[in-house]
Design a protein that fits this description.
It is a single chain. The protein has helices at residues 3-14, 50-57, 88-101; strands at 18-23, 26-31, 34-40, 43-47, 63-65, 74-81. With 103 residues, the protein is an alpha+beta fold. The chain has one domain (3-101): Aspartate Aminotransferase, domain 1 (Alpha-Beta Complex), CATH 3.90.1150. The protein has a six-stranded antiparallel beta sheet. The longest helix has 14 residues, at 88-101. It is globular and about 30 Å long.
């Protein structure tokens, strides 16, 4: 397991009410049945909206999550590489909190 994967699991498992699961064959964390983060290509991916989504996209190297690699990104999901992992805990909190509030 890479350092990035270890950090992903550390963050995901530390969030209240998060459970480990699968999303498109990738490891994810969910609240209930809804995923809010997953791991892909040494990146943590977050389901975000509004200003928080815009803020995440401003991080160097951030991009929309395209799990198929066929230029069909999932517009609500932002992929942030391990190089910017200091940002991961903040966006993980935002992502799970959006599920809690239903926004």
């Amino acid at each position: 397991m890479t350092e990035a994967e270890q950090l992903f699991h550390q963050i995901g498992s530390s969030l209240e009410e998060s459970i480990k699961g699968q999303l498109f064959g990738k490891t994810c964390y969910k609240r209930g049945k809804k995923a809010f983060t997953c791991f892909f290509q040494e990146s943590m991916v977050f389901k975000l909206s509004g200003e928080v989504h815009t803020e995440a996209m401003q991080i160097p190297g951030a991009k929309l999550f395209d799990p198929s690699g066929k230029n069909r990104p999932m517009k609500a999901w932002v992929q942030i590489h391990f190089d910017q992992s200091d940002q991961w805990p903040v966006f993980a909190e935002y992502a799970i909190n959006e599920l809690k509030t239903g926004t």
